Amino acid sequence: MTGAGGRMGRALTRAVLAEEKLRLVAALDRPDAEVQGEDAGLLAGAGMCGVTVGADAVAGFVDADVVLDFTTPEATAAYSELAAQARAVHVIGTTGLQGEHEERLQAAARHCRIVKSGNMSLGVNLLASLVRRAAAALGPGYDIEVVEMHHRHKVDAPSGTALLLGQAAADGRAVDLAENAIRARDGHTGPRPEGAIGFATLRGGSVVGEHAVILAGDGERIELVHRAESRDNFARGAVRAALWAFDKKPGLYTMADVLGLH
């Protein structure tokens, strides 16, 4: 377990301790984290488990078959290299990854199994499948907007889930998302370009995650919405991904692979 002291780390710990097929062998966090030395189970509110939070990633990976990782882009890239050396399953829910991080994951995936998704929720990944189908069926005559809201502490925007949904829309239309995405609007922007995929980002309060994909046509509007009420949804999805990937060949997989949604 990486990032064991964070909100997602604690949710992941609870999910692992509740799964009879998994056993927690190591819990990691930053060397300066206040949770260093604490029992990971007590920290997660799941009762004492006998595994204390440490900072030695190399030692933590030695006995691990699976790494659950919802941390930061640079940490995730480094963990992927350790997972490759350990031939472990690396389940990644980290968002905000850039090109250099993705390249390091691609290299690591030649030696280990990586399951990466902007959102591990089963519901969100089903939503992405529906968005892909809707975008393909309706065509460019329907304008697509992705609206997301998260808690005030989230540091990246648009969210990884919003980008996942935007990519699903682009895949449905068989276009390049980077060439068609509009991530911000300010001032006199002119009319909306045909075929654009827009993003709107909201931040505030303690919202776990809300996403809506709006397909607006002449005289009608279709909205596909997902509201996360608990981080436990993401944790359960990560555990399912870990169990699914255990006997797979090295490679880079997504939750669509896990759920058979291709």
Global morphology: elongated
Strand order of the largest sheet: 7-8-6-9-10
**Order of H and E elements:** HEHEHEHEHEHEHHEEEEHEH
Mean pLDDT across the residues is 94
How many strands? 11
Query: What are the low-pLDDT stretches, counting only 5+ consecutive residues below 50?
Result: none
Which structural category fits the helices and strands? alpha/beta
- The helix count comes to 10
Largest sheet: 5 strands, mixed
Descriptive account of the structure:
- The protein has 262 residues and is of the alpha/beta class.
- Helix content is 38%, strand content 21%.
- It has helices spanning 7-18, 40-43, 57-62, 73-86, 99-108, 122-138, 160-173, 177-180, 232-245, 255-259, and strands at residues 27-28, 53-54, 66-69, 89-92, 113-116, 143-150, 181-182, 197-203, 209-217, 220-228, 251-253.
- Strands 7-8-6-9-10 form a five-stranded mixed sheet. Strands 3-4-5-11 form a four-stranded parallel sheet, with helices on both faces. Strands 1-2 form a two-stranded parallel sheet.
- Helix 4 runs parallel beside helix 5 (99-108).
